[in-house]
Known about the structure:
The protein is mainly α. The chain folds into 2 domains: 1-88, no CATH class; 105-183, no CATH class. It has helices spanning 2-34, 39-45, 50-58, 63-77, 88-96, 119-125, 143-157, 159-165, 168-181; strands at 134-135, 138-139. It has a two-stranded antiparallel ribbon.
Amino acid sequence: xxxxxxxxxxxxxxxxxxxxxxxxxxxxxxxxxxxxxxxxxxxxxxxxxxxxxxxxxxxxxxxxxxxxxxxxxxxxxxxxxxxxxxxxxxxxxxxxxxxxxxxxxxxxxxxxxxxxxxxxxxxxxxxxxxxxxxxxxxxxxxxxxxxxxxxxxxxxxxxxxxxxxxxxxxxxxxxxxxxxxxx
Length: 183
């Protein structure tokens, strides 16, 4: 019985931590709204359920209630299991990268042939402390990290090699997408 109590207590502490982190994140969403960001921009900066961001933007509910509901929803969507904890500070640091002046970061432009990366480029385009992590089926902490990592790798192997290693079905889909964009 004691082990069950400890497990239940530990589960409640983890949920409380997730709710607190979600609350802090939603407070940031509220500030971004106040700075003139729209829902789409916020969702690009910080990966959150769209419903939570919309509720913050509407502004009729207490943010703590939205945080609690969002964590409950994530647990329900995860078959009743508590989702893996994210490194909250890292997550916010990644989100804040969107506010860094663009001139601070060298743009990598993948071309047909492979290109070498410098240590500085690698540091700019790879995850914090070069840690590869999986969060609820998503590689890395957020979309920005995934995009940066992909660009660095494609830059390094070249577009020819990327096309060479893609399955034929993916090549067909890629061609269709490129044709729609009409480069």
